[in-house]
Amino acid sequence: MELSGEKLNKAADYAEANFKLMWKLFSEEDRGRILIGMDEVSEDIRTIVRDSYIVDSSPIYWLEFPLIGNPCTDFSVGYYADELPEQIHIVGDNLRNKKEYFEHFQKLLKDNDKHNEVCLEFDVSAGETKRPSYGSIPYMVDDFTISENKKRIIDTMTLINQTDRIDGALLVYDKSPGYWKPYYQGVSEARENLPMRITWLLGGECKEFYKKDPGQLQKDLEAVGAPVTDENTISQMLEVLSLEATVELQMDLSKDGTILPSIGMCVASDYFYQSKDPMKIYEDYANLGIKWGIADERYKCISPKNKVIMMPYYDDEKGMIRKRISMGLYILKFKWSHKGIMPLKAYYFLKSNKMM
C-alpha cells in the first residue's frame, strides 16, 4: 500500500531537518565554507535529501570535495540493506521506479546473509539532482571472488535495466590478475555514454607483488585494457600503493567496451584504524597530494577519526529519544586522466540513527 502525499511530505521534512542538523555540525569552525564553499545547505542538496529518502530509514550521506582549487561538492546517498525498513516507500517520483532495486538487496540479506549497500551518486557540481549513478557495494564479506562478483553484476545490471553491460564487465574482470579482488560496480544514468564503474581491492599480497616487481603494474593495466602508458602516472600509482592501507582501484567502462582514460585509487578510512596511528597514515597520503600539487592545507580541516555525537531528540511517535550522529572521513581519492593527475578528493560521511 502506497503512502499518501501528506505522509511522504512529512517524511521528507524529517529527512531535510535531520540532514540540516548534521550539516550544522559538519560546517562548524568554517569547514563548510573552506571545504565546500557554502555555509548553508544548497537547494540542490536539499532536493536530493528529500527526493531520495526512504521513509523510516537511516541513510548515510557523502560529501565529495576537492582538497585544492575552488571549493565545491558532489553528493551521494547510501542505504545499508540491514537498515532498510520492511516496506520501501521512496519520497521522490523520479526514484520510485527503483523500489525493486532496494527490495532486492533487502531480500538478499534476509535469504542469504549477503550484506550490500545501495549507493546513489549525484553530480551536484554539474547541476544533476534527479538522475544518479547506481551502485551496490558489498560489505561484511570475505568472498571477493570472480564468481561472487558475477552474481552481483548480473543482479545489479538487471535491476537498473542495463543488462547489455554484463558481458563487457565480466570480460574485464576475467582479464584482471588474481591479486586484484573484484569489489563493486555502478552505472550512471546521467553521464555521456553511461560509464560503468568497475573496481577492485588491492591489498597486502598485491602491494607486495608490485613492490618486488614495479613493472608488473603497467602490464596488468594493459591486460585489462586500461589506457595508461605515462611513466609518471605509473610511478605515482606505485607510490600510492607503497603506503599502508588497502587501495580501491577504479576504472570506467564505456558502453562500447573500452575503458575510459581515467583511473582512480581510493584509500578508505576503515583501513586507517588497523594501524596504531591512523592520523599518520592519513597525513602520509595527504602529503603525497601536497607534493604533487593536488592538495593544499585544507586537508587539516578533517581527520580519519570519526566524530560521534549523542543528542536528545523529540520523535512524534516515541517521544524524547536520543539521536546518534556520526561523521568523518570516508575515503581519499587519487585520480589520473589522460592529462595527468587530478585534484585529490575527500569523501566525508554524515549519518544519523535514532536510539531508544
Descriptive report:
36% of the residues are buried. The protein has one domain (5-355). The protein is of the alpha+beta class. The chain has a ten-stranded antiparallel beta barrel with strand order 1-2-3-4-5-6-7-8-10-12, surrounded by eight helices. A hairpin with a 3-residue loop joins β9 (307-315) and β10. The protein is built from eleven helices and twelve strands. It has helices at residues 5-26, 31-36, 43-51, 99-112, 146-159, 166-175, 204-212, 215-224, 231-242, 269-272, 278-291; strands at 60-66, 74-80, 116-122, 133-138, 181-188, 196-202, 247-253, 259-268, 307-315, 319-337, 340-341, 345-355. α1 packs across α3 (43-51) and α5 packs antiparallel against α6.
Characteristic key phrases:
12 strands; single chain; 11 helices; 356 residues
Describe the protein's topology.
Blueprint: H1 5-26, H2 31-36, H3 43-51, E1 60-66, E2 74-80, H4 99-112, E3 116-122, E4 133-138, H5 146-159, H6 166-175, E5 181-188, E6 196-202, H7 204-212, H8 215-224, H9 231-242, E7 247-253, E8 259-268, H10 269-272, H11 278-291, E9 307-315, E10 319-337, E11 340-341, E12 345-355
Antiparallel strand pairs: 1-2, 1-12, 2-3, 3-4, 4-5, 5-6, 6-7, 7-8, 8-10, 9-10, 10-11, 10-12
